[in-house]
Amino acid sequence: TRVLGIETSCDETAASVVTRDASGKPQIISNIVLSQIEEHVAFGGVVPEIAARAHVTALDGVIRAALDEAGMKPADVDAVAATAGPGLIGGLIVGLTTAKAFAAALGKPLIPINHLEGHALTPRLTDKVAFPYLLLLVSGGHSQIVEVRGVGDYRRWATTIDDALGEAFDKTAKLLSLPYPGGPNVEKAAKTGDPKRFSFPRPLKGEARPDFSFSGLKTAVRRTATELAPLSPQDVSHICASFQAAVTESLTDRVARSLTRFREEHSGVTTPTLVVAGGVAANLTIRAALDATAQEAGFQLVAPPLQLCGDNAAMIAWAGLERLEAGLAEEAPMNFRPRPRWPLDETSTPVFGAGK
Ligand code: ATP
Ligand code: MG
Ligand code: FE
C-alpha cells in the first residue's frame, strides 16, 4: 500500500509517499518539503493570504516531485491523505481540495488527517513505538501532553493556558530582532550565551495542575531587553540562553508530573515511552533535558529525526496508512470540510462535514 500525503496547513507545501517494505517496516519513499520562509521573512511571520497563494502555485509541482522521486505514476498511488486541519483555512482548502480531485480522478480513497495526529504518530514511522505512549507535542500552535492509546484514540492531559511553546520562541525572537522563524534562531544565539545570566521565571514550576504557561516568560524577556537596550549581540545570546533554560526547566517539571501519572495508569507497561514531537522537538537543549527527565522516571525518550520534527507530508501519509490499517479510513466522505480548529482528542470521532 502506497499512500500519498499532502501537507499545506501553514507555510510548508509538502508531499510524500510512504509505504511498508517487504518486512513490514515503514518506509518513506519520497519526501518533498518546500518552505515558504523566503516569502514571509520580510513580514516577520506567516502572512495567511501569501501562504495560501504560494500553496496554489507550488502544490502541483511538489506532488509531481514526490511521485517522480518515488518513481511512481499517479495511478500507482493507493490512497491520498491530506491535512484537513487544524491550520490556516486558505492552505487547508488548497491541500484538501487538491487531494479530493486526485482521489476522485483515480478512484482511490481520500483520508482527511488531523495535522496534530501526523505529529503524534511520527515516532511510529521512524522507531518501533508501541501503544500506549505519552506524547509531548510542542509546536508553533500547540503545547500539549497527550496519552496516545491507539490510532485515533487520544486523551489530552495538559495544555497551555496561554502561548504555545513555539509561539513563545517566535515572539522572543521577534522582540530581540532575530529573523523569522524564531525557534532555530533563538537556539543558535543561545549557543554562545550564558543560561544563568538572567533568572527568568519558570512558569507553573511545582504547581499541581499539569498545564503549561509561557506568556509571563515572554514579558520578563521584554522587560530585560528594554532595560538593556540597545542590545549587543552578546546580550541577545545571554537572553536567548537564559530564556531557553527557563523554558526547558518549566517543561521538564510539567512533563515529570505526567510521567508519574502514566506510570500509575499503565503499570503493566514495562518500558514506558515518552515521545516528543512538533517543531520545537528539534531543539537539542530541550531534547537533552527531556531525555534526562525520562530516564530518571524509567521512561525511554523517542524523538523524531530533526527533519521530521517540523511540518512535512511524510507524517501525514503515515497517519493515513495507520488509519487505513486500523480500519479508520473507509468512509471519509468527499464533502469533508477543512477544520481550522480541530482538537486532537476529537479525532476518534471526527465530525464529518462540520465546518469548525
Ligand atoms: P502546529 O503544528 O501546532 O499546527 P506549526 O505546524 O506551525 O503549528 P510546526 O511546524 O510543527 O508548527 O513547528 C514550528 C514551530 O517550531 C515554530 O514556532 C518554530 O519556531 C519552532 N521551532 C522550530 N525549530 C525550533 C528549535 N530548534 N528550537 C525551538 N523552536 C523551534
Ligand atoms: Mg512552518
Ligand atoms: Fe505542525
Folded structure, characterized:
The structure is a single chain. By secondary structure, the chain is an alpha/beta fold. It has helices spanning about 35-40, 50-70, 90-105, 115-125, 165-175, 180-190, 215-230, 235-265, 285-295, 315-325, and strands at about 5, 10-20, 25-35, 80-85, 110-115, 135-140, 145-150, 155-160, 275, 300. The protein has a five-stranded mixed beta sheet with strand order 3-2-1-4-5, sandwiched between helices. A five-stranded mixed beta sheet has the order 8-7-6-9-10, with helices on both faces. A hairpin with a 2-residue loop joins strand 7 and strand 8. Helix 4 packs across helix 10, helix 5 (about 165-175) crosses helix 6 (about 180-190) and helix 6 packs across helix 8 (about 235-265). The longest helix has about 35 residues, at about 235-265. It is globular. The chain starts with a strand and ends in a 31-residue tail after the last helix. Fe (iii) ion binds next to helix 4.
Describe the SSE topology.
Blueprint: E1 3-7, E2 12-20, E3 26-35, H1 37-40, H2 48-70, E4 79-85, H3 89-106, E5 110-114, H4 115-126, E6 133-138, E7 143-150, E8 153-159, H5 165-175, H6 182-190, H7 215-228, H8 233-265, E9 273-277, H9 284-296, E10 300-302, H10 314-325
Parallel strand pairs: 1-4, 4-5, 6-9, 9-10
Antiparallel strand pairs: 1-2, 2-3, 6-7, 7-8
This protein binds adenosine-5'-triphosphate, magnesium ion and fe (iii) ion.
Binding site for Fe cation: 115, 119, 311
Binding site for substrate: 137-141, 170, 183, 187, 283
Protein name: tRNA N6-adenosine threonylcarbamoyltransferase
